[in-house]
Amino acid sequence: MAQPGSSANPLRMGVFSISPALAAGEKKGFFADNDVHVTLEQVESSEQQFRDFDAGAYDVLQTSWDNVVNYRCNASNDLGRPLNVLADFALDLGMGLSVVTPPEIPSMEAVRGGEVAVDAADSGYAYVLYSLLEKAGLRRDIDYTVVSQGSVAERYRKMSDGYASATLLSDGLEALARELGMNQLADESALGTPYVGSVVAWNGDWYADNRDTAMRFRDAYEAALGWVLEPGNRDEAAELVATVRGLPPQDARVVFDAELGPWGLARDTHITDEASRAVIALRQQYDGFDEDPEVNPYGDLALFFVNSGPNAS
């Protein structure tokens, strides 16, 4: 039987949004040149992503660091048990996570009494949204109602139709929302801490048997990232974003420029302890851990990572 990474058995990656570096890895041949044949498969939500990952539909995930912590620690996740999921390296710093409201909701106070749309109420980036709203005096489940509406792309489409009072957008969609007249009321910089957003994550058992493939994937991704960050490649990289995400060229450029911002693509794929613990602290703030988690969330961070720690290479 062919091993993952061969052309007969491609490396299947469940993704929320195809970043410029992932697009370059696929379309510019960085993955194939390093003998990892990656298929990027769109996911609809964190729950669907991890159900399918658990069932073997994906070999690797683009998912939030918070999701890794949740599914590794909590038996109360939607799978009903902890999962042997491990982070490898950082893809982004949140991609500009922003509180976005429709034109008729001009302030945080105007969100009061409304519905706030998230991917999943107890996973992913929902805690960032709760924190930003709380800084404005709005308490979860008291001053607003939380509704689950899937991926960032799905929430962007819903917000364009005036579905909710507020949501959290990123990946350049917050910039497109502004162009449509929506309000961007706060962003992740207001957290006042370092932050790590999407990471590459593997099933720990799969990684143990396929470490060479995983390392070649990381090397290829970092080469693709370097290509994207070269100023002379910016126009072509924006064209790749238009192609893989089905965006008009002018929208793709807005998205691409936003994803190169200070909270966009991670220039250094290593994940710091400080950023890791900041995300864990947000989850704990909103009671996001079981009473007796299998893994102590403030214990050894190496328990969450391949290669025994966040800065391993």
Automatic annotation (TrEMBL):
<keyword id="KW-0732">Signal</keyword>
<comment type="similarity">
    <text>Belongs to the bacterial solute-binding protein SsuA/TauA family.</text>
</comment>
<dbReference type="Pfam" id="PF13379">
    <property type="entry name" value="NMT1_2"/>
</dbReference>
<protein>
    <submittedName>
        <fullName>ABC transporter substrate-binding protein</fullName>
    </submittedName>
</protein>
